[in-house]
Amino acid sequence: LADALPEADWMRDRSLDALRYVRASFWDEQAGGLFTLIALDGTPLLAATKHGHGAAYSLGAAAEVYRATGAQEALDFGLELFAWVDRHFHDAENGGYHGWVTREGRPILTTGDIPRELRQRERDHLGHGIGLKDANVHSDLLEGLAALAEVGAGERLRKRLDELYDVVAHRFTTPMGAVHYLTDTSLTPVPGLEQFGYPAQVGYRLCRAAAVCALPLDAALAQARVMADHMLDRAF
Predict the structure, then answer these.
(1) pTM above 0.70?
(2) Burial of residue 3, with CB atoms counted within 10 A of its CB: 0-12 exposed, 13-18 middle, 19 or more buried
(3) Which of 88, 204, 192, 221 is nearest to 132 (CA)?
(4) pLDDT in tens, 27-46
(5) Measured between alpha carbons, how far is 44 from 47 in angstroms, rounded to an integer?
(6) DSSP 141-204
(7) CA angle 151, 66, 164 (to 5 degrees)
(8) DSSP element (H, E) containing 51
(9) Which residues are CB-neighbours of 49 under 8 A, at least 6 positions away?
(10) pLDDT tens, 149-174?
């Protein structure tokens, strides 16, 4: 809204206030990273675990607040969060990102990795099987990293964005325009129902990221159109 209404200074102020709240209340001063859920008094819940979904949106938020306000603390927070996410969520063996980690940053890939107080859970916070990778986290991270790269990219961030673009464009999507919601750790698609919000979301984000990755926008736009056509043909 601050971008759309440049005369509304209070919107920029409120956006910075909100980002400061995220940094002050959700950041784990002991182990780093953002808690998934906290109580009103700030106590971390869900065994102080951390999830890539909230981290992805926080990366994008930090970049957009920096763009709107010029506050260096916003960019610093985004880069600090990226470093933690990349160190603990990134899958160096198979590519892409794990979705759920312990407080210390160990990936939760099996039920045996879940902290003892959450052992009754059979699914992660997004409602799917433990250890699976999903289009939700990867699509959100693609936009978050693209936004951050637009305002403060380093070599490592650009490398990860290039990798993530390839994963989203070629491992989660099909030539006919469908988007697999889930894959296993090796990025092999897991059969399941199609969720039609993702073709629209992924198509837009590929186009945004292509410019940052120095990839042809025409190719990203063509893929986005195929996904949009598929969505409209199958879901309308």
Answers:
(1) yes
(2) exposed
(3) 192
(4) 999 999 999 999 999 999 99
(5) 7
(6) HHHHHHHHHHHH--HHHHHHHHHHHHHHHHTSB-TTS-B-SEE-TT--B------THHHHHHHH
(7) 45
(8) strand 50-51
(9) 35, 36, 100, 101, 102, 103, 108, 115, 118
(10) 999 878 899 999 999 999 999 999 99
